[in-house]
Amino acid sequence: MKRVVAVILSALMLLTLFGGCAQSAAPATSSADNAASSEVASSAAASYEKAKEPVTVTIWHECDATIAQTIQDELNKLAPDIVVKVERKEKMSEALKLVGNDPASAPDMYFFAHDKIGLFAEMGILAPITDFITKEDLSSMIPMTIPAGTYKENIYQLPLYFETLLFMYNKALMKEVPKTTDDLLAYMKANTKNGSYGYVEQHSTAYYTAGWMQGFGGFIINDKAEPGLNKQEMIDAVTYHQQFVKYMPADGEYNTVTTLFKEGKAHSIISGPWLVPDVKKAGIDLGIAPMPTINSTNKPITPFSGVQGVSVLKSAAQTKKDAITAILKQLLKPDIGIALAKAANCAPANTKCYDDASISANEMIVAMKKTADNVVPMPNVPAMDVMWSITENMLSAVNKNNADPKTECEKAQKEALSQIEAMK
Amino acid sequence: MKKKLLPYLYSFPALLVIGLIVLFPILYTGYISLTNMNIYHWFNYSFIGLDNYVKALFVMDSGFIPAVLRTLLWTVINMMLQVVLAFFIALALNAEGLRLKNLYKTLLMFPWAMPGYVSILLWRMGMFNTEFGMLNQWLRTMGFENINWLSGNVMAFTCCTVVNLWLALPFMIMMIDGALQSIDKAYYESATLEGAGFFTRTGKITVPLLRPIVAPAIIMSTFTTFKQFDIIYLLTQQQGAKTGADIHTIITYVYEKAFITNNFGYSSAVSIVIFAMIIVLSIFTRKDLKEEGR
Amino acid sequence: MTGIKISRGAKLAALNLILIIICLLALLPILYAISVSLNAHNEVISSSFSFFPKELTLENYRMILFDKPFLVWLFNTGLLSLATVVAAIAVSVPAAYAFSRRRFVGRKAILYILLLLNAFPGILSMFAVYNLLKPMGLVNSYQGLILIYVGTMGIFGLWNMKGYFDTIPEEIEEAGKIDGANDFQIVTKIVLPLAKPSIIVTAVMVLIFVWNEYIFAVTFMTGAEKYTLAAGLYSLQATEYTRNWPVFSAASLLASLPILVVFFAIQKHMVSGLTAGGVKG
């Protein structure tokens, strides 16, 4: 009988093992809380104490390692008073939904594109950055980058750099860059043969096709969270764009189109700055040209832009106010923009950075800066979250299964309205 | 008295962890389904009764019924192929005199030895890609036209089935192979002495003896197949790489319709409804289950 | 008689041929990954792809082994798998034994309900599990992951081993009981050796589950030094723009090697303790 008890006990011990660790972990978190609250209690004493005991600020990110390292290096300048940990978190936006209001597991700040701002602000996990710095501090930012991080009148993001799509071409293959979309179509007709393509893009994704839609004056969703998928401009854009797709690889997926361009099998491509290092490594003589103008509207293809920046979590806003203010102030300086531009060809959000010689000499960054007036920041309303998928469904139906544009647009609009309703 | 309590004591640890990790999330989802937890009330949600269930009924629109039928078709086709193929492969692996069987067995397990998303990615990029995929490269070498493997509905469904079989067969082979080991060889010897052939032995001895052992695994696989999300989603529906094929199963359909809205109360209600549906469907197999429960 | 022998040899040859073809089919995408991982250029997909890269290189393997925390991930996964397998077997064996051998109130109902619980679409479970682990302080800890994995595999373990235990005639145990053995002795001395394949199958199932699971590992673990292999692999390919296919392929292949070694090693133990004629009722 004793043996039986032993088995049970050992099984139970495994369980208490979990419990035991739970107990040992609990005091650790609560002591962190205590430390944090005592800090608030006496700010004078806290700032005195800080000299001895550094404040640790965690910043989550999900970006390229070089960029993260550049930010880390910049913020290391605040040591030893403030220790910043720039930490990678996979599936970051999912994780933030989980832990957003739990100081024990949530980060203090995060670095991400601006398009989730509305979602997180609405959930109530973000603190406006104007709690730490003034609006005047932001006056040197490129104008487009501020509304991108603004949701319901509050600014939630300090922009660091922005990304936008560029018209890139292979100088060896494309001698003259088409000025208009009709020219582009003619070029594609003449040069798409034998596994070579005149022009490629990710033709059935919302992010890449938005440039066409917006060039036609259409929109996926406006800042009042009203979808515009069945507007005449949108139907025109999708219908017009459909004829280009016939001369592009059917699946229009990232790896496919970029590989074609890198192998010199596509003469031109609309893609992001992230593609440039690979293209250069592949030995392509890369040219960057202005977006072609759409003939019927006389407006260039007007792509989305993504503004990358830092936001502050509400839970950290009170407990680590001074440290976070110091970090934001540090990031307001042009240094970080210049460093990011040098390290990873990022186009800084801070106009002051462009005074630096190395940046004004960078062809790609200059090209991106020029397009900054001709881009639409991705909508940051929470409803945009459902629009990506709906728009892409609509585009793939039209482009990949030859569905009728008008029918699909109407269908998608209905779907969008019902899903936005379902969010509430 | 003590004796009566013993079985509960023996099974308590297992039931406790299962209760925590499997049962609790279901109950929790049930609870959330009665609240208005969505991005506008993420932390300050309140009880709203059955409103989400009323809303969930709207998910069952014109696209839902085809998705249900497709899911049933998907489950039946996949399970039949899976069990039959795995059974014969396992039998082959147990043939007497097969020297390399350990090597074969190990190699056959390879698809199972890497995370699913890795192999699905491999299939999508390496096999099915329209420009560079191996299948199309072979077609071109043989002088045929490219095929858009994942765009047409029937073709995409077939491709998903192939990938699902590829991923699921190792598990099934291993289960059946393991179960075959537990069959007393004496049965075969006496049957062979009585002059029974391969098919008679298989039908009269192997299958009946295997059934009770393999049945739970098959039932659990059936649920997994029914709920299969990754393969269909990653091959045809992934954002940024949708192929235009509409082969939604129930789970991918409600994912696009409900889960994507960040409305947790609503999505929970939808989950519970689907849970209830699968349970009702599985009542058809209940007779089987009872037997297995002895 | 010789006729039969020849046909037997022919049959075996045919069988070998069929199995080789099946293996090749199963390995097709894997061979592809191997070829990519040995390729000197970062091109998973290339119009000039062939199974034999023009420039062979082991650089990708060197890079994954030494420039990335691959070995740390391997160690983490090994530790986590071992702990999970031990815990899972420790909780499911007694339960499976109880459900197989004893008749008690609620037995059938529990078995049936456990099976039906599998029907729940778990996409939303993450939240519930998080809310469960948070008060226990198990977020971002291996204990938390072990608990999740043991719980998830618990139903399979219980049902699978119960199924095997059922096939072992109770008469064998009777003999033990007469000799005065208690339950623990009966299980460890008689049942377990006889049910060895089932224990191995269950353990391998748990092992593979832990080895391949990444959603919980990625969501609940923060910091690359705490990742498991599957989570680490996920992080290698998560950003499409920087995805390095050859390194990723090399990593995937390396990550699956230990599993294959385990598979190969267990094969000889997969033979049941039940020998022909040894137990006749």
Automatic annotation (TrEMBL), chain A:
GO BP, sorted A to Z: maltodextrin transmembrane transport; maltose transport
Annotated SUPFAM superfamilies: Periplasmic binding protein-like II
Pfam name, any one: SBP_bac_8
Parts of the chain that traverse the membrane: none
Source domain of life: Bacteria
Signal peptide: 1-24
Alphabetized InterPro entries for the sequence: SBP
Cellular component terms (Gene Ontology): ATP-binding cassette (ABC) transporter complex, substrate-binding subunit-containing
Sorted UniProt keywords: Signal, Transport
GO molecular function terms listed in the Swiss-Prot or TrEMBL record: maltose binding
Family named by the database record: Belongs to the bacterial solute-binding protein 1 family.
Protein name as catalogued: Cyclodextrin-binding protein
Species the sequence originates in: Acetanaerobacterium elongatum
Automatic annotation (TrEMBL), chain B:
Domain annotation ABC transmembrane type-1: ranges: 68-285
Membrane spanning stretches: 12-34, 72-95, 107-127, 147-169, 264-284
GO cellular component, one term: plasma membrane
Protein name: Carbohydrate ABC transporter membrane protein 1, CUT1 family
Organism: Acetanaerobacterium elongatum
Family under the similarity heading: Belongs to the binding-protein-dependent transport system permease family.
Pfam families: BPD_transp_1
Single biological process term from Gene Ontology: transmembrane transport
Recorded topology in the membrane: Multi-pass membrane protein
UniProtKB/TrEMBL annotation, chain C:
Membrane topology category: Multi-pass membrane protein
Organism from which the protein derives: Acetanaerobacterium elongatum
Residue intervals passing through the bilayer: 12-34, 70-97, 109-130, 142-159, 199-224, 244-266
Gene Ontology cellular component annotations, sorted alphabetically: plasma membrane
Domain called ABC transmembrane type-1: residue spans: 74-266
GO biological process: one example: maltodextrin transmembrane transport
Coiled-coil regions, chain positions: none
Cell compartment(s), UniProt: Cell membrane
PANTHER family linked to this entry: MALTOSE TRANSPORT SYSTEM PERMEASE-RELATED (PTHR32243), MALTOSE_MALTODEXTRIN TRANSPORT SYSTEM PERMEASE PROTEIN MALG (PTHR32243:SF50)
Main location: membrane
A single MF term (Gene Ontology): ABC-type maltose transporter activity
Name this protein carries in UniProt: Carbohydrate ABC transporter membrane protein 2, CUT1 family
Organism classification: Bacteria, Bacillati, Bacillota, Clostridia, Eubacteriales
Gene3D superfamilies: MetI-like (1.10.3720.10)
Keywords: Cell membrane, Membrane, Sugar transport, Transmembrane, Transmembrane helix, Transport
Family from the record: Belongs to the binding-protein-dependent transport system permease family. MalFG subfamily.
Signal peptide: none
